[in-house]
Amino acid sequence: MWNNIYTEQNHQEECANREQALQSSALLNGEQRTIEKCLRNYGGLSAANAERLERYTQWSDSYEEVPCFTQCYLSEMFDFYHEQAGFEERRIRQHFGEAVYEACKERLQLGADQNQSSCEHAYAGFHCIVSLENDPFILIENMPNATRVAKSAMKECLQQVDQVEWNRIADYAQFPPTEPIPCFTRCFISQLQLFDERTRRWRLPAMRQVLGVPLVGARVSGCAQRRGRNPCATFYQQFTCFVLAV
């Protein structure tokens, strides 16, 4: 009887640890099976291994927390990596953009003395991709409708603010009511001369040409009437209205 109780208690604890590991790892739909497979040789999806997976965000340059996990995970989950051929250039460009591929090219390509990918190659390449995916200058570079001139203006304005604010560039995609980096929008709008200070009017044709917004035919009549608590906030509110108008 005691043996049965002990076995049941172990089973319950194992299930609880397993559930905790799943939650702490924030697994995506369809991802659990792949992770379990890739951890099979290291004790499965235990609480300890879940902590190891969380530490992947620290991305050591020389040490993979779970040996060969990245190669297994990539080959099972994504179409841009193949266990033997390695990273596929076309799909990397498609998924992550030209700028990320060019920045990581040396790590993504197989070396002259390599016939096929390895665990180290998979980790080094994916490490580079992930570390750059949210880089503020890469995010600007990957803006699909912005011209080279517009991207240059944004990068120049970004370098005028404290570097601790740079990671807030990603927050612009959520269109929050308060601008993530104060006065950033006003800066690049002024650089691109998209607002006529004399007439107090927006140059919408020029804006469409360099930024791709607002859409032709979009209802923007009320955008110029929006007001913020200061000129920078007003620029942000009005420009966001132009971007979101349909």
UniProtKB/TrEMBL annotation:
Record's keyword annotation contains Membrane: no
Cellular component GO terms held in the UniProt record: extracellular space
Keywords: Secreted, Signal
GO biological process, one term: sensory perception of smell
Gene Ontology molecular-function annotations: odorant binding
Subcellular location: Secreted
Superkingdom of origin organism: Eukaryota
Keyword flag Signal: yes
Sequence similarity: Belongs to the PBP/GOBP family.
Protein name (database record): Odorant-binding protein 83cd
Organism listed in the record: Drosophila virilis (Fruit fly)
